[in-house]
Every structure is written in C-alpha cells, then in structure tokens.
Amino acid sequence: MAEFTDRGIESVWDYPRPPAVLRDERPVRVECAGQVIAETRHALRVLETSHPPTFYIPPEDVRTELLIPAHGRSWCEWKGSARYWDLVIGDDVRDQAAWSYSDPEPAYAALRDCFAFYVGRVDRCLVDGEVVQAQEGDFYGGWITKDVHGPFKGPPGTRGW
How far is CA 147 from CA 94, 133, 138, in A? Predict the structure, then answer.
C-alpha cells in the first residue's frame, strides 16, 4: 500500500509498526488564543504506519501553567496509558487539547511527561514555519505537513485499517 514518494517526501505507509520515536530539531510551535503555548527545537516525532507524525514537546518547552488535568484516559497498545489535558487561557477552554504519558512502556520512555497537542483543538501548530494540517477524525493526533503523504488513517471508514 506504500505510495511512490519524491526525495524528501515521506509516505506514512513506509512508517514502522510498532511506532518509532525520532528526535526532530526543527522548530515546533503551538499557538492558541494569541499565546505561544509551546515552542521547541527538541521535539520527539512518533512515526506509525498509516498515521501522520505526532510531535511530543518536552515539558520545559510547554507553558504547563495553562494545562489542567482533563477527565478521561486512553490506552495505546505500544505506549501505555495516556492522560488528557485541557488548555485554559482566561475564559477560553480547549477540552482535551493535549495528552501525555507519565509512565510509558519502556520502549517509549523518551516520551515520559512530554506533551502532544491536537492540531484541531488549538489555533495553530507549525513545524519549521509551516502551518500544520490536522489529521481527520477525533482519535488520532497526527500533524500533516507538505513532506508527509497518505492516505491517512483517521477519517470515517478507516479505523479498521
């Protein structure tokens, strides 16, 4: 199912399963309600077959004072139990805008306490100055940039891929 890709273009069908965690030194930025919520050159990029990459940002590069624990958890067969975070900026509350793993499975220990953000629940995410597109669907939190191609899992009818 992998697609032909030009040099510098990644097909999500070439990503591994189980997922890989790679360091990414490009500037990554999350904005919401006129505020910079997170900004780093030390992101971790998780690559999993059929998904756009998910970017995890170290806690020291996130304005954690704007995050409050949200209700609910989810389970990833690879990473373990995730907790969700509401983003609160004054009266602007973005429910479950972020998630993190406080005790990930050993193979994903690098993700411990890093934050991932849903692109569609904040105002804007950027990678190396490029505005990111949100992955369709409400379950996955992939970041789509011009150098990543699908088809992507997430829209209706693709959950069983």
Answer: 28, 12, 22
Domains of the chain: residue spans and CATH: 10-143 (2.170.150.40)
Q: How far apart are CA 88 and CA 2, in angstroms?
A: 40
Asked whether the beta carbons of 132 and 118 are under 8 A apart, the reply is no
Alpha-carbon distance of 134 to 129, in angstroms, equals 16
CA distance 117 to 37: 10
The predicted-structure confidence for 22-69, as pLDDT tens digits, reads as follows: 999 999 999 999 999 999 999 999 999 999 999 999 999 999 999 999
**What is the chain's Cα-based Rg?**
15
Q: Are 98 and 115 in contact (CB under 8 A)?
A: yes
The Cα–Cα gap between 60 and 13 comes to 32
Greatest extent of the chain over all pairs of C-alpha atoms, in Å = 46
The pLDDT of residue 8: 82
DSSP-derived 3-state class of residue 95: strand
